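Lab notebook, bench 4. Still working through the backlog of constructs that have no structural model yet. Next entry is a single chain of 182 residues. Request: give me the structure tokens for it.
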Amino acid sequence: MGLYPSQTELHPFFQYSARRDLREKLFRAFISRGDNGNELDNKAVLTKISVLRVKRANLLGYKTHADYVLEENMAKTPAGVYKLLNQLWGPSLDMAKTEAKELQALVDKEGGSFKLEPWDWWYYAEKLKKAKYDLDDEILRPYFELKAVRQGAFDVAGKLFGLRFEPRADIPVYHPTSRSSK
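Model written out:
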């Protein structure tokens, strides 16, 4: 984990920690990372990156950075992205509101005298999943062994992009625990 952990690294804590105060503290720290008003503040760097991205896009004949990066993607244009997002927004918002009501009902049922907040979502969603479906992610763990998942990723990349992965013993690795595709 680096200075700022990724959401993937934090997710298990949000999902399983019964300490609401710590979930809130971690959530607030995560969403404000890089916006600290100190030597770790990234706003000036982000502004510079944004300006450079627009300049690069303009030099290459594009109006915006979004136009540049989307040309070869499914959406093709910023308008295409917004079209898709607008199609998804209504149903997604309706589902989120339904889920929030279910989660708030669980909070209330457990005697919580608080309104569901973002840092509570994963914790109560996990509890609701277990209550509704009797699912436990740990049961699935043996089916997702690292070696098999890694090989599956290599196989998919091979099928999708025609890539072939072979181990290389003649070059240095970035970390002693890194492994080849075999």
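Notes after review: Helices lie at 7-16, 20-31, 43-59, 65-70, 78-109, 118-133, 137-140, 146-161. The CA atoms of residues 21 and 119 lie 9 Å apart. Flag for follow-up if needed.
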